[in-house]
User: Which sequence fits this backbone?
């Protein structure tokens, strides 16, 4: 038994004491933690998407229960240990948006207090993304939601086709904004007969950049529609041109600023030839379909013999299925980022493209610390 000296005194120390404890501690540190995938709500669409993702990953869906109390409070029970693991929460956004947000927040906080290592939200359609700019006496709700998610414990987000790419700047943690365009382009090539005779259409000048990306990848022509029947989102009053009509104060009235002329939308016109061709309108969100229906009627008048709409997020609120069914639109193609099974039953023209493959690959790469560049091959910043 070796002899150690401490301050002039001799002490006997056994080899079987601290070395084993130190060795065990090192083993615990170097062991690689696992990961689990949970569904943040019990809706059929969210469970189905979560199962598709877990099947591709070769893992089981995490055991949890998410339900509403009789007083509409959200309760989350996690049925297994998550300590030291990477946790991925899949949350689709059904019609009850605010309930879905609370489910995500409560589950993230439950996992945080259960000592999960990292909590990554898989939110294919990010809610409130249209409210990302200041309006007259309004608020940037998207930024508020980003702060709430960070406070609840999320450390990373995987989403798809944000309404504005600048939304990523609202977050204090990484955001991976995946693209659905490869899947939609593949659908065009495989499911639209004679797509070589098609032209990509931008419903408004603001959508021209997205349409240009599709046109260049498919080697097709481009058409842009200008003028709208209703006031567009970008032209809503933001408060910068709203001085009081009359001043009640006395004294110096300030500078006389030049008055801007009010904008007036012209009738819808099409820049580009669509006569005798297939028109494919591309956008990121299709919710209120009045503008799409009006655009389809104009394209039909200009000679387009088939009209398709390709969008990432098919919210299809209100009477959208009925309006699509009664319109000149031949087919609406959306991805499964948003549940829309009820709308499909009401309108056979609505088709779905599965994007679970890219979501599963993003989860695998983030957990393994691999580069995400593979998922953005040939995709420019402006796409």
Assistant:
């Amino acid at each position: 038994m070796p002899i150690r000296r401490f301050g002039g005194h001799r002490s006997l120390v056994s080899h079987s004491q601290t070395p084993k404890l130190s060795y065990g501690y090192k083993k615990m540190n170097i062991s690689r933690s696992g990961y689990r995938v949970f569904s943040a709500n019990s809706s059929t669409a969210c469970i189905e998407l979560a199962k598709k993702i877990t099947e591709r990953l070769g893992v089981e869906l995490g055991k949890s229960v998410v339900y509403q109390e009789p007083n509409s409070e959200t309760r989350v029970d996690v049925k297994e240990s998550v300590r030291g693991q990477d946790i991925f929460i899949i949350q689709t956004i059904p019609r009850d948006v605010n309930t879905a947000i609370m489910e995500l927040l409560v589950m993230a906080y439950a996992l945080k207090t259960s000592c999960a290592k990292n909590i990554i939200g898989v939110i294919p359609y990010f809610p409130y993304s249209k409210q990302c700019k200041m309006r007259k006496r309004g608020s940037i709700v998207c930024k508020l939601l980003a702060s709430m998610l960070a406070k609840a414990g999320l450390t990373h987000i995987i989403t798809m086709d944000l309404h504005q790419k600048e939304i990523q700047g609202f977050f204090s943690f990484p955001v991976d904004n995946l693209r659905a365009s490869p899947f939609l382009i593949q659908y065009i090539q495989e499911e639209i007969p004679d797509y070589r005779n098609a032209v990509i259409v931008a419903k408004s000048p603001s959508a021209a950049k997205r349409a240009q990306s599709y046109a260049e990848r498919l080697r097709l022509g481009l058409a842009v529609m200008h003028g709208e029947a209703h006031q567009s989102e970008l032209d809503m009053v933001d408060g910068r041109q709203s001085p009081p009509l009359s001043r009640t104060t006395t004294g110096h009235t300030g500078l006389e600023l030049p008055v801007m002329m009010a904008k007036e939308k012209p009738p819808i016109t099409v820049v580009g030839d669509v006569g005798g061709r297939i028109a494919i309108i591309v956008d990121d969100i299709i919710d209120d379909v009045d503008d799409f229906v009006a655009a389809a009627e104009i394209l039909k008048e200009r000679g387009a013999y088939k009209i398709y709409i390709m969008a990432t997020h098919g919210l299809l609120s209100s009477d959208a299925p009925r309006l699509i069914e009664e319109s000149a639109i031949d087919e609406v193609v959306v991805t499964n980022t948003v549940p829309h099974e009820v709308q499909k039953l009401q309108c056979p023209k609505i088709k779905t493209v599965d994007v679970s493959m890219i979501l599963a690959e993003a989860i695998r790469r983030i957990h393994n610390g691999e580069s995400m560049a593979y998922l953005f091959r040939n995709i420019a910043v402006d796409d």
